[in-house]
């Protein structure tokens, strides 16, 4: 009996997130540091003739203007939340974006003339990538930490590209671009953990029996390597001490933090950090917050364009094709300009709301400058108080700096988990780590404290922590185990 092919129709429901161009634009501006934001505003002024410098004036009457519904889309509709008014700010005032020369932001020398980020972008430009892949590569490079590692999951990168860049991609494509970046110099860039970082470096070495042994140690016996278990490694590999010494010599030349070496490779010129916020303390302990916008002009719709729209709308030529096309062009440019103005306002409100809340939660630090008074604070704390989405708070804190009376700090400096003592005192993990580091620094180097002994030492100071917690904090401080500190 012949086989009959049948077609079946099924229906499924999936949930996705779709952002409007206006939303994507605002999110892009929010994540830009001050200098890049200034450049973006200047570029937009050049590209869109309907946008000009100057204070915003009243828009044309309703009968003459374009449809504004999409341009005036509310912030609350897309998870940026309600912003606080000046009346909600308790202990300090907010100034205008432009500030006097007395309050001029400092520029702090930082690293080298060609940044870590720029150097990798130069290498990205040399690759045979599509424009789509290049954008993914740029985002991955921007997500690397100071050590040159990618500590975000590939899935997170995929989600963030969709939300913040409007780029549709998948895990396989991001993995492909990441592997391209992992071929950049210095070796080890783009690794997701220590094992991958070291293997990437070994792979570039000239083929030899020593290289093969080194690769085998890192790929199969990573734990024995990190704990210097010499006898176990020799037995597992079936090698003598002379060969082990040669392999070990090669392994110790590897750099677990390839990003940190970029300054030594590039040169000795100066690059500057421009703070995004300026916080000052008065004699009575009050705080004032300024959003750094010294080089960002006020924006408004071009008055010439508005007049032209009014003229075209009232002439008898409006039914002619050329007139209709001209009017459509003018309205499109005006709408684009208005969307950009709205996005700039939303950026200012988002940054102000975020920094205002950080000041409220960490006021003691901004008054005293003492790290020990930092209170526990996580992204959710700021998100809950501002009504903003956690991902928005993350983008602001990852790329912004604040100038204080005690120096310039990245916003992420103020975020840490908390610990509550037996007396009910809430302390920042930063404070506990500082105590742990000081305890280790004062130990007898001939008999360094084990993690169990550190538990007892910190308990004497009022911190009842588990051994695994002590071990975790010690590793985060990049302090080796006791036997390696002799």
How does this model look, in words?
The chain has 486 residues and is of the alpha+beta class. The chain has helices spanning 21-31, 34-47, 116-125, 131-143, 154-165, 171-181, 194-203, 209-220, 222-226, 230-237, 241-251, 262-266, 303-314, 321-361, 363-368, 379-386, 390-399, 429-441, 451-460, 467-476, and strands at 51-53, 108-110, 271-273, 277-281, 287-291, 299-301, 401-404, 407-410, 418-420, 426-428. The strands form four sheets. It has a four-stranded mixed β-sheet. Strands 1-6 form a two-stranded antiparallel sheet. It has a two-stranded antiparallel ribbon with strand order 2-3. Strand 7 and strand 8 form a beta hairpin. Helix 14 (321-361) crosses helix 16 and helix 19 packs across helix 20 (467-476). The N and C termini lie far apart (83 Å).
Describe the largest sheet: 4 strands, mixed
Give the structural class: alpha+beta
Low-confidence stretches: 58-113, 263-271
Extended strand count: 10
Number of helices: 20
Strand/helix succession: HHEEHHHHHHHHHHEEEEHHHHHEEEEHHH
Strand content: 5-15%
For the CA atoms, what is the radius of gyration?
28 Å
Question: How many angstroms does the end-to-end distance come to?
Answer: 83 Å
On the 0-100 scale, what is the average pLDDT? 76
């Amino acid at each position: 009996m012949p086989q009959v092919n049948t077609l079946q129709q099924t229906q499924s429901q999936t949930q996705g997130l779709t952002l409007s161009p206006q939303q994507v634009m605002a999110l892009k501006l929010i994540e830009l540091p001050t200098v890049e934001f200034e450049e973006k505003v200047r570029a937009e002024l050049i590209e869109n003739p309907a946008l000009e410098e100057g204070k915003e004036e009243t828009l044309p009457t309703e009968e003459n203007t374009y449809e504004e519904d999409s341009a005036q889309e509310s912030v609350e509709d897309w998870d940026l939340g309600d912003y606080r008014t000046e009346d909600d700010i308790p202990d300090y005032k907010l100034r205008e974006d432009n500030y006097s020369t007395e309050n001029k932001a400092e520029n702090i020398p930082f690293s080298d003339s060609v940044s870590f980020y720029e150097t990798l972008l130069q290498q990205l430009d040399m690759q045979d990538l599509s424009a789509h892949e290049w954008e993914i590569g740029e985002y991955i490079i921007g997500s690397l930490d100071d050590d040159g590692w990618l500590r975000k999951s590939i899935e997170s990168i995929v989600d963030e590209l969709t939300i913040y860049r409007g780029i549709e991609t998948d895990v396989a494509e991001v993995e492909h671009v990441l592997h391209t970046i992992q071929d950049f110099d210095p070796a080890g860039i783009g690794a997701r953990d220590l094992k991958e970082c070291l293997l990437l470096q070994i792979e570039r070495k000239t083929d030899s029996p020593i290289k093969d042994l080194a690769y085998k140690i890192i790929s199969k016996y990573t734990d024995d390597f990190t704990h210097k278990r010499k006898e176990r490694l020799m037995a597992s590999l079936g090698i003598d001490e002379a060969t082990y010494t040669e392999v070990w010599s090669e392994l110790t030349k590897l750099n677990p933090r390839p990003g940190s070496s970029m300054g030594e490779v590039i040169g000795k010129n100066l690059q500057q950090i421009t703070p995004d916020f300026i916080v000052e303390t008065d004699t009575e302990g009050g705080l004032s917050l300024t959003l750094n916008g010294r080089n960002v002009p006020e924006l408004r719709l071009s008055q010439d364009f508005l007049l032209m729209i009014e003229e075209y709308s009232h002439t008898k030529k409006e039914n002619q094709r050329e007139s209709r096309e001209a009017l459509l062009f003018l309205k499109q440019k005006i709408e684009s300009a208005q969307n950009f103005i709205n996005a700039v306002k939303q950026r200012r409100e988002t940054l102000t709301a975020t920094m205002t809340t950080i000041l409220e939660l960490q006021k003691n630090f901004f008054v005293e400058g003492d790290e020990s008074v930092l209170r526990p604070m996580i992204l959710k704390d700021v998100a809950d108080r501002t009504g903003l989405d956690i991902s928005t708070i993350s983008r602001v804190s990852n790329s912004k700096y604040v100038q204080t009376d005690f120096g310039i700090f990245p916003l992420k400096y103020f975020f840490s988990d908390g610990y509550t003592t037996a007396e009910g005192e809430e302390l920042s993990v930063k404070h506990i780590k500082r105590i742990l580091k000081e305890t280790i620094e004062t130990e007898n180097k001939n008999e360094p404290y084990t993690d169990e002994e550190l538990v007892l030492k910190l308990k004497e100071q009022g911190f009842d922590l588990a051994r695994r917690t002590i071990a975790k904090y010690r590793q985060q401080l990049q302090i080796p185990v006791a036997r390696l500190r002799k």
